């Protein structure tokens, strides 16, 4: 098992792992996706394990169920456990406007698709969902 500093939500049985620098909007994106029906896996810390050729994401035990909502505080949400990671979304101010496709990022020996998303957008959640639909592993 590896603890990974990222936020993560489950969407229709697939996990979207959200990476980015501190303050880049990981928790805000997770909150927006939860508002659209996603389930929290973890915020600012996710437990990852490889099983059966899949990378599974679960809440980090010390902070399970907690989501930081800026200017409000820590709020408690139900969590999903052992969700296969389908896509890594990295919040990045230098994200390409029209990439040729996803990059690949190695995590625990597995190659996962990675998309870079420009974080300062009112439609960031919609772009994350579109990236998951287009590039996410089944």
UniProtKB/TrEMBL annotation:
GO MF, one annotated term: kinase activity
Transmembrane segments: none
InterPro entries: Hpr_kin/Pase_C (IPR011104), P-loop_NTPase (IPR027417)
Keywords, sorted A to Z: Kinase, Transferase
Residues covered by the HPr kinase/phosphorylase C-terminal domain: 6-75
Record bears the keyword Chloroplast: no
Name by which UniProt lists this protein: HPr kinase/phosphorylase
Organism: Novosphingobium bradum
């Amino acid at each position: 098992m590896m603890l990974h500093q990222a936020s993560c939500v489950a969407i229709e049985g697939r996990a979207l792992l959200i990476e980015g620098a501190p303050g880049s909007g990981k928790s805000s994106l997770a909150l927006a996706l939860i508002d659209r029906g996603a389930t929290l896996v973890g915020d600012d810390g996710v437990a990852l394990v490889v099983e059966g050729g899949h990378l599974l994401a679960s809440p980090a035990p010390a902070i399970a169920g907690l989501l930081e909502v800026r200017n409000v505080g820590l709020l408690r949400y139900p969590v999903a456990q052992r969700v296969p990671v389908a896509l890594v979304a990295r919040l990045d101010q230098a994200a390409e406007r029209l990439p040729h496709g996803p990059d690949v990022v190695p995590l625990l020996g597995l190659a996962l698709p990675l998309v870079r998303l420009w974080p300062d957008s009112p439609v960031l959640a919609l772009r994350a969902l579109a990236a998951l639909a287009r590039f996410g592993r089944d």
